[in-house]
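Progress against Task 2.4 (sequence-to-structure conversion) is shown through the following example record, which the project officer requested during the mid-term review.
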Amino acid sequence: MRGPYRKRRVQRPPQFSNFKPSGIPRKYLDSIELTVDEFEAIRLADYLQKEHAEAAEMMQISRPTFTRLIQQARRKLATAIIEGMELVIIGGNIDFEHTLHRCHDCGEVIQLPVDVSEEDCPGCGSQNVEDLARSFIMGRHHRGGRR
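Structure tokens generated for the chain above:
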């Protein structure tokens, strides 16, 4: 019998959680879900051009697991683009190293260690600040890990 899934290490949450074809109202679109760890695999392998072994080490998973994860993510991304679907990034069994805080008044985004809480925007002083990591772990984009 397999043990519990280990949390996957993610450097920081995505800045955006939804992508859709322009000009088509969301209500007419099918959607496909990409987990935050799949997003991180794409970021590391395709955006940052990391080798699978290095990316796996950064996520604290095995290289074969990383390879399966990136294959799943690429398949979902291709499906969304080719079939014109909305791509929705959701939580998962993850651990963030950093968080991003977005000010809803001035739009500034700052990166902080995950254990630091910033209540005011350093740019404009507003308290209308969203912790993006928290929204993926506890809020509207959350999906718990498998057991």
